[in-house]
Amino acid sequence: MSSIRARLGLGVFDFCQVEALAEACLRPRAAAISVVQSWCSAGFDLEDVYLDGLVPAARLLGEWWCSDRIDFAEVTIGINCLQQVLYEFSPQFLSQADRKSNGLRAIFFSTPKSQHSFGTVMLTEFFRRSGWEASNLSIESDAVVLEELARHWIDIAGFSICSDRGVDALRQLIVDARQASLNPKVQFMIGGPMVELDPDLLATLGADLMGGDARESQRLAYQQVKSIYPAN
To answer: What are the structural domains of the chain?
Structure first.
């Protein structure tokens, strides 16, 4: 049990609570929403619910898939359910934020062939809560990334990396995106499962910073941008 605790990154919730949420995600969405609502009613902060509840539940679903407890369709259903929970609680989550804009803009991309965008959706929520104008997109082609950065002033562009496929292509995409960017000092952030497994990807890809959890990623991104524009 200690090894799975480490892999799941358990925090304020114990394994049984995370397991209950993961199991609820394989049933109709209302079951998962009910679990999260019960945690909120018990006094848990929604930020902790996201980071210490939803994130470990997503990891546990991945563990179950790797051990053949559930199949690919079920893990996809479960992760998509967690994403729907984020959407459900978004108004409540954002209502707890300081509504003052910090004047910064971020965009997060899910890499090609990624089966879900749960991580980038959660990142977007945390950045918005901290005053950023933030959005997320799936990369259907390199042109999508280049067009977004050429058309809009972006301070942080993030990539969620779920596998080692396409690392060379992503390295070249970051090079091309720097050249195309309307903001010549745009900063590139990487995160996701592969970054946790291979911290050297930061240098390999030529990115500027490596994110941690959603809360830490927002803090690091803000510090990075402010170090470039200290007068802002």
So the answer is: 2-95 (1.10.1240), 105-228 (3.40.50.280)
